[in-house]
Amino acid sequence: MKGTTKVDFEVGGLPMFFETGLLAKQADAAVSCGLEENIVFSAVTSANEVREGCDFFPLQVEYREKFYAAGRFPGGYIKREARPSEKEILTMRVTDRPIRTLFPSNFYREVQINNMLMSCDGLRDTDILSVNAASASLTLSDLPFNGPIGAVRIARVNSNWVINPTHDQLAESDLDLTYCGSRDKVMMIEGTADEIPEDEFIEAMKTAHSEVVKIIDAQLKLRSDLGLPEKIYTSEVSENLILDKAREIAGEKFIELMKISGKQERQGAVSDLKETLHSQLLENFAEMSDEEYFHAFHDLEVETVRRNVIENQTRIGGRGFLELRELDAQVGVLPRTHGSAVFGRGETQTLCTVTLGTKKETQGLDAVTGGVSEKEFLLHYNFPPYSVGEVGRLGMTSRREIGHGNLAERSIVPVLPDDFPYTVRVVSEVMGSNGSSSMASACGGTLALMDAGVPLKAPVAGISVGLFTDDNGASVQVIDILGVEDHCGDMDFKVVGSRKGITGFQVDLKVHGLSWEQVQEAFEIARKGRNDILDYMESVINTPREELASNAPRITTVKIDPEKIGALIGPGGKHIRGITESSGAQIDIDEDGTVSIYATDAESMESAVSQVNALTAEIEVGVVYDGKVITVKDFGAFVECMPGKEGLVHISELANERVESVESICKPGDSMKVKCIDIDNQGRVRLSRKAALNDD
Prior knowledge:
The structure is a single chain. The protein folds into five domains: 5-225, Ribosomal Protein S5, domain 2, CATH 3.30.230.70; 241-318, Arc Repressor Mutant, subunit A; 327-540, 2-Layer Sandwich (Ribosomal Protein S5, domain 2); 554-616, Ribosomal Protein S8, Chain: A, domain 1 (2-Layer Sandwich), CATH 3.30.1370; 624-695, CATH 2.40.50.140. The chain is 32% helix and 29% strand. The chain has an eight-stranded antiparallel beta sheet, sandwiched between helices. A six-stranded mixed beta sheet has the order 1-2-3-4-6-5. Strand 18 (461-469) and strand 19 form a beta hairpin. The longest helix is centred in the first third of the chain and has 28 residues, at 198-225.
């Protein structure tokens, strides 16, 4: 179309493109990113001035999946897209994280990125297109964005790496890795794996990175084809006389306060210093605004934490770089839950509970992009204000809560049993937070599942690794970071895994990427840390309980021939309704012939199982049955020997002696013990009363 500019290229053998000039011409920049028939559109706009009193970078990333993209109507009464789904929120977060860090630290203008899924073939997920489209639109804009970056998803199917796999390929893969990088740095990773060793994980990342470079080159070509000059990133550091004076007055005092290990005590002391320092600085800078002081004090705090680590080799509270906080855990703390555990690491504490339910409790998914339609394992994460000693609003689940819960959830999924007949819900209530509450949720969730008797393949534990850097290129990595270390540091590298390998991961950065050496170091630190945590967890409970909680539902599965499903259900649901009414059990039937039976006690379960077996079993030659006479004819009697299944007892098979009349032996409604003596090729059953009598 007239006025459009398009760059076509291939990634992982699949066609991709960037296109601009067709849509949203009044935005700062707008780009469509396509992969085969999937297209995500991204428009970037920015404010001309900094909002008064703004002391942070107000970046807003939105992502919406339009149902028209797949030729569908939205569900529900109102046929309109409503609030974002969890999947859309997770895509916003995965788009935001690698982009946010590539703006200058002193950039406070409001920036809004609006991404939309506009076309979808339903074969693969589109979250990586959101990252790429956002990067491309920022690259074309005049904003101080230190990009471009690129993102791909990588899987491993039959020992082969697959870039941007389909849903079917992901179902066969032992890895689901979303990888984002700049030309020479790792920017972001997240996903799940089936206990993959660290060296194989690094190999996957490097394979993904080679494809990411192609995406970066395509964005630069798009900018060049538009005739735009090469983008030069600058991050000016202006002289800050207020910070210099604050450092002079309170720098050493701040260092002393960082030796206080208790969060509340340290925060109280820092708050007192903040108030005192403000008065002292006003003596030198009478016209200093509250905003200027806020920035100076914040920078002093960040500088102090970094200096302590890099120059003084000291962490807050005096803990060693590779030293874990004190661990404390207990299982079985709530008597009426199906499983429960409290897990604490320092001042971070979670209460995790497990609820077991039937397949009817699964979470239905209605993603435009296709894929899994329901979830049988749920982990919900709640972060109330009291967990950090604050008063705050209570209401809708926040994006942060959704993200943290999803990280813990996907980290546990790889170790769940393959054929567990229950729907499982874990709830993590954060009772106290001072860093790594999502990792505590993975640990506490694992303990609660073991307490519930869920036969996990292996326990998993989570740990976070932090990074501190300075302007001279020095860097230090530390394990099990506190909240303030996360705030003042450059990285939150979260890794969950078993002793065998990694199951979940997510990296948040404030620096412009990680080198491969830094990534390898972080993985190794995390591996040692999680093994230490697993040692402790196994001292609390080393194997899943052999029995489910007494108040947990009982579920048994029976496998039947799929062709027998109709017989089990019966005309108009007669048979299945009769079973539920007589036994009190609930029954779910899958298309593959798996019958899940839910009951509250052993008697109900036994009754339901026997009735299901009776309705679906086949008559076998040589087996004796307690039957019931249905019809009497001159030549013999038809006997129902199993529910809905009958055969003929010929007059010659009614007794050892000659029988003159069938009615002299039996009438309709009589009980009769019979033996199956033959089933012909048409399925007709021959029964014998005589043979049954002789067996006796």
